[in-house]
Prior knowledge:
Blueprint: H1 6-23, E1 28-38, E2 43-52, E3 55-66, H2 68-75, E4 86-95, H3 98-113, E5 120-125, E6 132-139, H4 152-168
Antiparallel strand pairs: 1-2, 2-3, 3-4, 4-6, 5-6
Helix pairs in contact: 3-4
Amino acid sequence: MFDPTIFDNLKVSIENYVYDLDNLAEEVTVTNREDLMEMATMSRSFVLQFVLADSPEVKAEIVLDASLKDLATEILEVKGEDPGCQLTVRFYKEIDSVEEQCAQIQEALDEIWDQGQPPVQTLSYVYGQNEMMNKIEIKFNRKINEDQIEDIPNLVDHVIDSLDRLDEI
Length: 169
């Protein structure tokens, strides 16, 4: 019988919580979902993108990645290894005042996430247009596993708080 991996269990937990917020609470709207198996590296990736239901201008993504090493370590039950997944949260927001808005974004997300490392903001724009797209990425510097499943509602709540704050900037 198939025993789900850490990746599968975390993916389902994230999906269930976010889809409940979409379908039942109508607090968010899921706008994209990707569940990928990268055949070249035999890795897995899951991306769930959503927006606030009443304010779709700022997008959030929860990204879960598992490398071949992580998957093999778990399936083969390698002693002394700590299998898990890498978690990343991304936000996408159009901005028009780089210095002012990027500083405000940095401050707001530092307050919400309380990370040891600051969010990484990457700006891009289409030539001839005034607005820029800001991709804001929060990486967690440790792997997560099923021990953190109970933290998923708190994680998603932080994402929603971040969407609220980014929408105000």
